[in-house]
Amino acid sequence: MLPYGYPMKTIWKYELTPNRLQSVSIPHNGQILAVKANADNVPMLWVLVDPEMPVEERRLGIFTTNTELPDNPGQYVGSFTLYEGSLEFHVFDVGAI
């Protein structure tokens, strides 16, 4: 059992849209753990968060294979495929807005 007042974290799941740039509301200092498409071909993002922290908008860049990326696309998060691998996407954390 954890002592009273011990900071608790939890894992939140976010649904993404496979477009170039999007923002996601994540508590400050949230740690992105994984990105993966579910069985319905919906990309999902899992983030370790402290729900007591203020929420900030984090910008994500999502790019398909064989497309141009900015010179500094951000921190690589992971890749996922849709429709049995026929579409490939790569996710980058651009940072807080």
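Above is the first protein from milestone M3; the second protein from the same milestone is given next.
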Amino acid sequence: MVTFISLWIVVFSVGYMHDDPGESRYFALVSLFVGAMAILILANNLIVLFLGWEGVGVCSYLLVGFWFQKPEAAAAARKAHKVTLNKSRHALEQAPT
């Protein structure tokens, strides 16, 4: 299901990002995001799950701040990163020892 939805995101993004100078960077980030999401959902242990979660978080930060020249986008990216880090820290605190 993740790959199916990702396919449609890429298909619709082609037209939307057509004349953007950062088009190749955008598609590289989307590809990394899809890969991290696949790692997250296919993980069979907590370490791999954590790596997938962190990969999704980093890619989210980079995608939210894609147009980093705009102050709003940069602020939104910082906020998304802070939320993801807090969730990761909370998950680690709750993990069984």
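Note on the second protein: Helices lie at 2-16, 23-42, 46-64, 71-94.
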